[in-house]
TrEMBL record:
<feature type="region of interest" description="Disordered">
    <location>
        <begin position="35"/>
        <end position="63"/>
    </location>
</feature>
<dbReference type="GO" id="GO:0020037">
    <property type="term" value="F:heme binding"/>
</dbReference>
<dbReference type="InterPro" id="IPR024712">
    <property type="entry name" value="Catalase_clade2"/>
</dbReference>
<protein>
    <recommendedName>
        <fullName>Catalase</fullName>
        <ecNumber>1.11.1.6</ecNumber>
    </recommendedName>
</protein>
<keyword id="KW-0408">Iron</keyword>
<dbReference type="InterPro" id="IPR020835">
    <property type="entry name" value="Catalase_sf"/>
</dbReference>
<feature type="binding site">
    <location>
        <position position="125"/>
    </location>
    <ligand>
        <name>heme</name>
    </ligand>
</feature>
<feature type="compositionally biased region" description="Polar residues">
    <location>
        <begin position="37"/>
        <end position="49"/>
    </location>
</feature>
<dbReference type="Pfam" id="PF00199">
    <property type="entry name" value="Catalase"/>
</dbReference>
<dbReference type="GO" id="GO:0042744">
    <property type="term" value="P:hydrogen peroxide catabolic process"/>
</dbReference>
<keyword id="KW-0376">Hydrogen peroxide</keyword>
<dbReference type="InterPro" id="IPR010582">
    <property type="entry name" value="Catalase_immune_responsive"/>
</dbReference>
<dbReference type="InterPro" id="IPR018028">
    <property type="entry name" value="Catalase"/>
</dbReference>
<keyword id="KW-0479">Metal-binding</keyword>
<dbReference type="GO" id="GO:0005829">
    <property type="term" value="C:cytosol"/>
</dbReference>
<dbReference type="InterPro" id="IPR043156">
    <property type="entry name" value="Catalase_clade2_helical"/>
</dbReference>
<keyword id="KW-0349">Heme</keyword>
Amino acid sequence: TDQLSASIPHNPSKAEEYGEAARCPYTGAFSLPDSPAATSSTVNETVASPKTGEGKAPAGENRMKGDLDRVRVDSAGQMLTTNQGVNVASNQDSLKIGLRGPTAMEDFILREKLTHFDHERIPERVVHARGSAAHGYFENYKPLTDLTKAAPFNEAGKQTPVFVRFSTVAGERGSMDTARDVRGFAVKFYTDAGNWDLVGNNIPVFFIQDAMKFPDLVHAVKPEPHFGMPQASSAHDTYWDFVSLMPESTHMLLWQMSDRAIPRSYRMMQGFGVHTFRLVNDKNESVFCKFHWTPVAGVHSLVWDEAVKLGGADPDFHRRDLWEAIEAGAYPEWELGVQVFTEAQAEEFSFDVLDPTKLIPEEMVPVTPIGKMVLNRNPDNFFAETEQVAFCTAHIIPGIDFSNDPLLQGRIHSYLDTQISRLGGVNFHELPINAPLKPVHNNQRDGMHRQSIPRGRVAYEPNSLAGGCPFQAGMQGFTSFPETITEDKVRGRPEKFADHYSQARLFWISQSPAEQQHIINAFRFELTRVQTQAIRERVVSLLVNVDEELAAGVAAGLGIALPEAAPLASSTDFPVPPPSTALSEQHFPGNGMLLGRRVAILVADGVDGDSVQTLYDAILAEGGVPRLLGLQLGPVKADSGAALDAEGSIETMPSVLFDAVALPDGKLVAENLAASGQTLEFLRDQYRHCKPMLAIGASQQLLQTAGIPETLVDGSPDPTLLAVNALEDALQNFVQLVGSPRSFARETDPP
Ligand code: HDD
């Protein structure tokens, strides 16, 4: 055991705390046969490449970990007790009057157990119900004190503990991870000046401009109230009815129909604070800023057909991916960047920086990297941490302040309010995962489930009996930026909020041709599910204002003529900025490392054991996850006579669970696999989903049997289909392709 913990970077902090019992990877996750060509028994060993885990936090660094120790419970070697700590003799039978008689009312042990169970569930989040979270830290690059006094940014190298929850928006708590949806990206910083929550999404803009419309938006997208369908999907009438009548949503709709809404992994998506925020320094000078999280692994997405199939093959696909990566020591990392600009600059922009349906192109205001975030610890308990964590946009610290974005202003109310019903009262801040590291001192008292025991008789201020304590912090406390406002009180919107299309067009013209085609396909899919023809037409009429080719492409799929453009909300001609490279996913290829990407090596009797071994080792060495898939689990005979161990079966682990496939050499293996329809379907899906494929020697025949074309439609070679005579001809290239963005050269329309 000691040797294992010393050699395996398997969440070392957990193992240190609890020993081996703490290691609970999902069965089979990252567990590999010792040496695939030499053993038939799988050793449950976690392997991470030397390249992964570089972001490993030094032991004892995560202060939040220590703080939570107080409430962590480890039952190893302990007797079972009631909630009052009374040892329980038997946990099998209730107390009866005679073995066949009724249960005694006095069975307090049974009653306590059932009562607790009956109340186990709490309301799920009204949006973002489905999510996964992890602990980690933010490390600041250099002091930003000229811009802000915010604690995480005041020293070079300073580490601030964080807890981050990723989520889908529309689906219920048990819905699938790969739905087409916006993803939540909420970060709680446990700073030494109190908690700061940056509650963002993986898309830099939002559907609506004013919080007044949020309940309408959510009611429209959630399952329709009369029959509770569809689950985790915006492809239905009420959603498109609403957004088609809200032209301000057009920009967001393009993002939502783009590949960003079907990420490959939580680890491979950006995060955005969305709103304009303020940074304030200790001289009370303020600038505006937008927050950007950029994943070191790059921005990568699924393709739609794959996302749909994953919903069935593994509804927990993103949850599992995040969990396994962290357990394996392949800690996900993001760089935090800021776009900083002054109020004077903002006034020059053709759009309003208070409008959350607008972004600021990076060509206008560059993103400056200021620090990095590493997620290095899975929660110990899903409910206590991931479910009970409460993010609130109102949780800010000195140095950060709000802007007047009317969506943000409404959020300041909503998040705190929602926790009261979700977490059962006003003391949710005392739950361990929500409690700040900085001690809390105030005169708020009582309420449901109060944990702290305030001492003394004074719970008011001013007081003399407690020497005036707790006393006001004055300049050391939070002070709102004293913005001067001389305006009328009105219900209305600023003029530039009427610009509904310029940035939708900017996004469209910044996409690659493949990305544009995916957007058209997504609109076609969603609107085909819409039953009301007038709604479909109204959506396309919005798109006419964005781009005629886009609108025509969608209209063609719906079998309708191109409608008239929707009327504009303003006669002002809002300029469309030139294409912005950072709006295309292709701008973020990542660092090329495999970072937990999964490669299927299909094996059957007669397989060339040496090439399996070489391939396996090469993928592992780059931080990837190779898996031997056979026609069934268990031993497979290599050509040399050695036994391999198939870790999964093609029957139960379909293509969508893998990022790439390799077919090792072997005449017999090709024959064996060619007789399996599931194998051929596996290969077709790998091909269809534009994944790197490697076929060696005799296995090349399998590609032909599966009907996979050797070249692209224009006759040119397919850059990600490697059919070679010997492994060494393609090994390097294959491994590199697995760590690279997908090439969509194979895609045809129709698919
Ligand atoms: Fe929200 C949850 C992100 C607009 C009201 N929101 C929630 C979560 C994220 C966001 C990531 C989940 C946090 C978690 O993991 O627990 N929301 C956004 C972004 C928005 C946005 C990026 C626009 C820029 N939200 C928004 C508005 C309102 C809300 C305008 C209401 C006025 N959001 C909520 C909520 C939720 C929530 C109802 C549900 C559960 C929760 O807060 O804790 O209060």
